[in-house]
Design brief:
alpha+beta; Enolase-like, domain 1; 2 domains; 3-stranded antiparallel sheet; two-stranded antiparallel ribbon; 22% strand
């Protein structure tokens, strides 16, 4: 444990590093809808206040309203869809023992256009609170797993794209087999069985079944 004299001689980065290690990363609130836990900003601040006093740091917030246009790329056309308001919260950490030493951290939160059960005049405050919480989590290295990870979304999108490409290739392969078939043998009937047991969507299976039936009639007629 550092003595008061040792703390006074530390620079702001040394103080912040120790605080990051000492601050407990616990989540006391629960989101029943998502079945997950999260932390409230008041809990973070409650845990931070004694550490700020111990390490002689001052923390303040400065909020700024940003008006950012939203762009719509529907059908490949770029259109101005409308203006959205963001709250930019800047956290300012100052070393009381050397006030020239400061660290700042920014975080953004978009103001909701409407939220059920919330008065419109409260929407900006909600955005400010969330931006401040995100800034605190970033500055003090608190795990941010209560929010959606963009990488996880990207992974799911890539998996979906890969699966769709696989299905397109599989469907094209079945069509090619059906069109090249010349006799009504076990090999031809096996195509239908493989279609039914494949990972294709039902609509694709129905389409291929129709092609299979039509080709069978054509072969029988020949």
């Amino acid at each position: 444990m550092s003595t008061l004299q040792e703390i006074k001689t530390m620079n702001i980065y040394e103080k912040l590093t120790i605080m990051q290690a000492k601050l407990e990363d616990k989540k006391d609130a629960k989101n029943a809808q998502l079945n997950s836990k999260y932390r409230k900003i008041e809990n973070i601040l409650e845990a931070l206040k004694p550490l700020l006093v111990e390490f002689r740091l001052n923390l303040t917030f400065n909020d700024e309203v940003l008006n950012i246009g939203e762009i719509d790329f529907t059908n490949g056309e770029i259109k101005e869809k409308g203006n959205r308001f963001y709250i930019k919260s800047t956290l300012i950490l100052v070393n009381i023992d050397n006030i020239q030493e400061t660290i700042t951290a920014d975080a953004l939160s978009r103001e909701a256009q409407i939220k059920k059960g919330v008065q419109v005049e409260m929407l900006t405050g909600m955005a400010s609170t969330y931006a401040r919480k995100k800034g605190l989590e970033g500055l003090f290295l608190l795990a941010d797993n209560d929010a959606i990870d963009p990488d996880a979304i990207m992974d799911k999108a890539e998996q979906k794209e890969e699966f769709e490409a696989h299905c397109d290739e599989l469907k094209a392969s079945f069509i090619n087999e059906i069109e090249k078939a010349t006799v009504l043998d076990d090999k031809f009937r096996g195509i239908k069985k493989r279609i039914d047991s494949s990972s294709l969507a039902n609509k694709d299976k129905i389409l291929l079944a129709e092609k299979f039936t039509m080709r069978g009639l054509e072969i029988k007629k020949d």
